[in-house]
Amino acid sequence: MNRVIIKRYLLALLLFLLPIISLAAVPTWQIVPAESSLTFTGTQNGAPASGSFKKFTGDIAFDPNQLKESKVKIIIDISSVTTTYRDFTSTLLTPDWLNAIIFPNATFIASHFNKIGNNKYTAEGSLTLRDKTIPVTVLFDTEELSKTKGRVKGSTTIKRTQFGVGQGEWADTDTVKDEVQVDFVITAIHK
């Protein structure tokens, strides 16, 4: 008899907690490619040299009220790199630079977020590029576009030589500076 009462009590408790548990799930988001961008700017011979990656996907679970449970994984298709100059784009795909044949993807993963202001956050994670993984901190702002759509704008600065980007004659940071700024705009809809 006591077992029956205990089972009923546990069942009632589970049914009571189920809505609370489902509310606690961090919302997941799907990137809207046509409204998102991933760009970079380096410096060559004292002048900015910019480009973008046209293809990237992501697994995003983010809630500003549940930062400890939030996580992001962005996968970048290296062969989708483009610049305003065809020769520059071709050079970036070579073994001395991004080596898209051997390293077809770059991956950013973050699971540690901090609120630093009104709709302003940092994401501490790691970037894997050319099979080298380096810690990276990203600064970003969030904007609610509707109940089911949001936008994130952010940036970070990386050192290309830490990833082996720009080898051989390009390893010297006098001609092509080491720092590369990465900027992104990600528009996503609630799944």
Roughly how many Å apart are the termini?
Answer: 45 Å
Radius of gyration from the CA trace? 21 Å
Per DSSP, the total helix count is 2
Count the E strands. Answer: 11
Order of strands across the widest beta sheet?
1-4-5-7-8-9-10-11
The main pleated sheet reads as: 8 strands, antiparallel, barrel
Shape: elongated
The residue ranges in which pLDDT falls below 50 over 5 or more consecutive positions are 10-15, 17-23
Q: How many discrete structural domains?
A: 1
Q: State mean pLDDT (0 to 100 scale).
A: 91
- Determine the strand fraction and express it as a percent band: over 45%
CATH class type: Mainly Beta
Helix content: 10-25%
Query: Per CATH, which architecture?
Result: Beta Barrel
Structural class: alpha+beta
CATH topology: Lipocalin
Q: Quick one: CATH superfamily?
A: Lipid/polyisoprenoid-binding, YceI-like
Series of secondary-structure elements, N-terminal to C-terminal: HEEEEEEHEEEEE
Task: Provide an overview of this structure.
- The chain is an alpha+beta fold and 191 residues long.
- It has a single domain, classed as Lipid/polyisoprenoid-binding, YceI-like (Lipocalin).
- It is 15% helix and 50% strand.
- The chain has 2 helices and 11 strands.
- It has helices spanning 2-23, 86-92, and strands at residues 28-31, 37-44, 47-53, 56-61, 71-77, 81-83, 105-117, 120-129, 132-146, 149-159, 179-190.
- The chain has an 8-stranded antiparallel barrel with strand order 1-4-5-7-8-9-10-11.
- Strand 9 and strand 10 form a beta hairpin.
- The chain is elongated, with a radius of gyration of 21 Å.
- The N and C termini lie far apart (45 Å).
